[in-house]
């Protein structure tokens, strides 16, 4: 909140001297109305959309005493759902503050019968109340209107990219014709546009340049932001904005840090106090060769580029938490790691090193207003997949957690036995009455006696159902996802909340710890209710009436966890050995370790948190919960695990290893007028911390812990696991950096391939030529291949073991349409001894 006095600063001393006099005199004067001078979109949004957005408010108080005000905003097409901000304005002052407004109504965003448009105008209406003394008085505008109305731009929801720069040099992000030559800041903006122009992403040309001096101090204001690009230092002067950005990142955001344009101390503060890398120096380059590292490596001839205007480059040493993706002259050029549920990607090379100017032979730019948007080079295109992975229709959402709460919330229906007794009584009574009426010769009375008996049975069902409903007290259930960031005591908690109330009526819903709860408001149309913010992390609902029954709502919040929760492991002679420190988490069950090859190992924890796993703990492909017979709750957990971990769609790098387990839930920051503790469960996700194995130690790397990528001319990618055409693939298995350098003594390749009417060939590489290891005819069953030749077990400079697989054309004389071949899994177990020497980054 920004406070500006109306009087000039030269009169400040005079005002302070006579403040008490003015206040006393003002009590007898007529109270002048407050004035709402401006309502504008601010922060990481410049338009309304189907997400929460932020409004900046400017309120003036011309009176000689402070006033309490409330500003209310709502969509003209949805006046019954209102959003408000309470604010106190000192005497004769102007206050600038902010508030949240909920998603734009879809019905107003896309009227029936009208085609969807990229953007259009939407009516946003505002009211201001003077609430001094506890009485709420509406202040009418000076015009003839009773409600202040402004037209605001609406755009349909799409992935949103924001960039924070230090200085553009001009207000419009599109440079004027007579603008000075491009600066490094402009290069950063052009690179971000080039990222959005990638054909595989199909994003618009809209890039929001953050021009506000301060960011909104809450992560809720970043709702709907997919990528945040940090290319400036001015956030150092905004500590609340740093905290808000970190919490947004932990809740699932994607942060791209251009380290050549910002300060490492700022990055350290965003990541929770420890940067994880150390800056050696800053330099300039005129000759640049960007090379892939590890699974980003390529066998293609790399291209060296010359620059007339030198490129900035930051030389850094990277810690083990980060995965180096690309390098320049042996120094990291890009590296990444998970932060809670989100991901940070750091580049150290200037923007022009990741793209090239568009030339006449290139295809036409996808952006009409930016015909000269640069072309991404292959290394940057690979980084783009980290920022905006392909859409995943099967991804885990909050609504997918709903089945977990069915056992914890609600009431039971009438049992089958009771229902059977009521129906039997109905039939017996109807039979007795029919027999009696026939005996008395009054069978015609059965026409009204039968319905009366049926109504009596229905009344019995209603009575029992209502009694069952009233017997269950109000219940609060949650299904949480907690992705730990061990560098911070603030942990992101997202998930689904369910509230059961046996009676309808008003409810007190509030929070004084922040968080955003999007409770289902279905069926409340026509009843005015108001979401009111009173401080940064304080809000409540007014006039909120809910009918009896169950209400669900997705939420995101931040929990304070001061006890460290760690999973520290190392490779030993028998496999992976480690220990989990659980801190305040209780009731862990159905734990697993998800390896880089997307396979899972069942984990049995000892009372002190210790565990050990090897190939015997490997779960069958597609299974994530151990057990011959799974309970109903375990089957639901199996489904959740599958949606989170299947394939490479979990929003994480393939060479990361995760510890996952279910635990008792944490508390939620929302209050409902009672102290009902939440029931339910929480899915805990924790990256494994791989300690380096000591030199001259024998180690076994279980199958599935060496990630595999296909090496192609333009870089590394996921292997093709199925197809119909013949194909040869050069594969690279990454030895975990924590055991490098090491001497591999033996390796075993495990695979299951279905290739009817085809030959499947596996080759290794010596220093001179490929060597065939085995050829399989019509493979169907699992196969294990031992590799023990020293000349086939050497690794590259980053610890990669190279193999080649080839699927032949089908045998002649087969069907016209060739049968599809499928590789179900392809994994390698490695046994060797660690060596003394420099550890890999």
Q: Biggest sheet: strands, sense, closure?
A: 9 strands, mixed
The rounded Rg comes to: 32 Å
Per DSSP E runs of 2 or more residues, the count of β-strands stands at 50
Percentage of residues in helical conformation: 10-25%
**Can you give the mean pLDDT?**
83
How many angstroms does the end-to-end distance come to?
44 Å
Q: Kindly estimate the percentage of residues that lie in beta strands according to DSSP.
A: 35-45%
Ranges where pLDDT stays below 50 over 5 or more residues in a row are 6-27, 108-117, 169-182, 648-652
Structural class: mainly beta
Q: In DSSP terms, counting alpha (H) and pi (I) runs of 4 or more, how many helices?
A: 10
Tally of separate domains = 5
Primary descriptors:
841 residues, mainly beta, Immunoglobulin-like, Rossmann fold, 5 domains, nine-stranded mixed beta sheet, eight-stranded mixed beta sheet, globular
Task: Explain the overall architecture.
The chain is mainly beta and 841 residues long. The protein has five domains: 2-154, Sandwich (Immunoglobulin-like), CATH 2.60.40.10; 160-387, Class I glutamine amidotransferase (GATase) domain (Rossmann fold, 3-Layer(aba) Sandwich); 394-405 and 473-691, no CATH class; 416-471, no CATH class; 698-834, Jelly Rolls. The chain is 15% helix and 38% strand. A hairpin with a 5-residue loop joins β33 (589-594) and β34. α8 runs antiparallel to α9 (446-471). It is globular and about 95 Å long. The two termini are 44 Å apart.
